[in-house]
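Q: Hi! First time doing this. I have a protein sequence and I read that you can turn it into a structure. Is that right? Here it is:
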Amino acid sequence: MRIFINANAEQEKEIKKKSFNEDVELIFAVDLPPSQEYKNIDAFFILNKKAADINFDELEEKPVFINSVIETLSQFQLPANVSRINGWPGFLQREIWEVVSENTIVSIKIFATIGWKIVFTKDEPGLVAARVISMIINEAF
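A: Yes, that's right. Below is the predicted 3D structure, encoded as structure tokens:
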């Protein structure tokens, strides 16, 4: 399986700390590849672009995971192949990733193939962990 990951240097470094199955090829780049290469990619993780800046029509029906902690899927009215994750610094190296997805079966398959654990959350701003951490920071402040 070939996974394309749009990430900055810090995000790439965090993900590379995680273990993943040997039969998975992780392809890192700061920009999306040319559209003619999309057919050779099984899933996209877009961590370094805002949802409003992504042309989801070009990505066909491939599974797409976007770094969108605050904005929800319903807010952008994104296609069913798009899921949300938390790509903030520190969250990518966590043992379990939070995922918001309308297509849970595909998400489970992708993450199981990579060898990463996930938990599904509601399509609400902040997901769960980021909201809890924010509350702790606000209380400490």
